Amino acid sequence: MPAACEAVLEDIEDIVSAEDLKPHDRQFVRKNVFPKVRKRNSQKSVQADDEPPSDSIIPGVQKIWIRTWGCSHNNSDGEYMAGQLAAYGYKITDNSAEADLWLLNSCTVKNPAEDHFRNSIKKAQEGKKKVVLAGCVPQAQPRQEYLKGLSIIGVQQIDRVVEVVEETIKGHSVRLLGQKKDNGKRLGGARLDLPKIRKNPLIEIISINTGCLNACTYCKTKHARGDLASYPIEELVDRAKQSFQEGVCEIWLTSEDTGAYGRDIGTDLPTLLWKLVEVIPEGAMLRLGMTNPPYILEHLEEMAKILNHPRVYAFLHIPVQSASDSVLMDMKREYCVADFKQVVDFLKEKVPGITIATDIICGFPGETDEDFLETMKLVELYRFPSLFINQFYPRPGTPAAKMPQVPAAVKKQRTKDLSQLFHSYNPYDHKVGERQRVLVTEESFDSNYYVAHNPFYEQVLVPKDPLLMGKMVEVNIYEAGKHFMKGQPVSDARVHTASITRPLAKGEVSGLTEEFRRAAQNGTKWKAQPSAEIPVKTQLSSWMALQLPWQQEGGGLKILSVSLALLAVLVMFYYRGMKTE
């Protein structure tokens, strides 16, 4: 097996194996090359030449285990990478022990997430597994010591995951970290029509943009995802249409800041949402992802109308992070507490029953007891049904990491105090006895119930009746907990099915075009039936040059050209040997 290349490579085409001849060596041995004469009647000789060497590797047949940490944007990237690999022939497995390669898709928001990522790398290496790293950690800091010598695929390069995996399996270390651009303008990322394997066949996660317009002093994700880059509305609508044609009944729109969508391409979020609701079938729902206060302020009237639409969840995730203006200023959040309250108060008035989720950081550098008390008062005022409480972790390379830190014990106590306040109230008790319309999409963690959501994206547990999955039904609420309600389906209620199309099976690849199916079939046939006229090793090199349809923008032309040139030379030697006979 070739020795691993330790150098950081700009692209796949830059790979040179340790066993490959260098230009000087190739010139030196040229005069000693003689064509081998193959006798027609020596079948034994032909077979010996055609046997692959003992260390040969056939890419596209290995088992791959994929682990993703972090946000729904990261999960979407993981689904796309799984889909491309499966479409190319790799087997995606849930069993890490049996996998030949681990694809680890990381999150850089908090220290614990990176710690899990680092530990997984160590475990893979101890188990002699090949490793490919993805996500925000290696994109933001690719030269960290524990990433040395490992293959990395950047967050905007996920459409080239097959190439990176192939080369890693062969023993090379490859790093693709560049940005996608069109005429110098940064694009949102890889194409949206790539094959993917949805973690939940009923839920489509669509990244509407990448990056953001802010520069929060605590945020490491900005280092990885960069500035705002939005996908065109037409591409997003097409992706939604395709999803519904594949049996999807719920769409999640995600990004680092959905509220900023379109500002870089001359449009805005409400314009996108109105286009999307036109294609959502009855019985299906759309959920909008996180938006920061500054950008949603500009569109409050339109957003209220959209969130009242029957096929859009009346739900919005608006991180406040702190109720202290001085802390928000140190965070560079670009809004004040009054702005946040204006957004929440307006939406609560115009969208009755709306669910507002928010985030709070406890113990940000410089946060005083008085600052934290203001945050506690804000939570007490709004009693958020969904609250993400985060103890502050200084992330390397961020301005906040250089600020004077709040003592660890104080951060821990504030996190505990806020958690106790959050658990002191039950937001759903008053809903017991209500009749609600819910969409059933998944199974509960304990496998005892199916999980549904009502129009406010509040979690409702229903009986595990397979006939309910993917359906919109009416239930009577008979019990409420801190994070959920329980509902019993109403026998005489109408059941809505979002799409007449059967949902894809779990693990089935979405978005395979006929163009790709033909290419994949041809490639498989070529690999499975090697010609007796050409050595197997040469055929494998040529087969690997086959480019996937979504990669045929020129990235593989060098490999294809070199392979064809090598093939021509071998054929020439073969016919020269025939003449010698």
From TrEMBL:
Give the gene that encodes this protein: Cdkal1
Per its UniProt record, what Pfam families does this chain match?
Radical_SAM, TRAM, UPF0004
Q: What is the name of the protein in this document?
A: tRNA-t(6)A37 methylthiotransferase
Catalytic reactions of this protein: N(6)-L-threonylcarbamoyladenosine(37) in tRNA + (sulfur carrier)-SH + AH2 + 2 S-adenosyl-L-methionine = 2-methylsulfanyl-N(6)-L-threonylcarbamoyladenosine(37) in tRNA + (sulfur carrier)-H + 5'-deoxyadenosine + L-methionine + A + S-adenosyl-L-homocysteine + 2 H(+)
Domain (MTTase N-terminal): give its ranges.
Answer: 62-170
What molecular function terms (GO) are annotated for this protein?
4 iron, 4 sulfur cluster binding; metal ion binding; tRNA (N(6)-L-threonylcarbamoyladenosine(37)-C(2))-methylthiotransferase activity
Cite the Radical SAM core domain residue spans from the record. Answer: 198-429
Which top-rank group of organisms is this from? Answer: Eukaryota
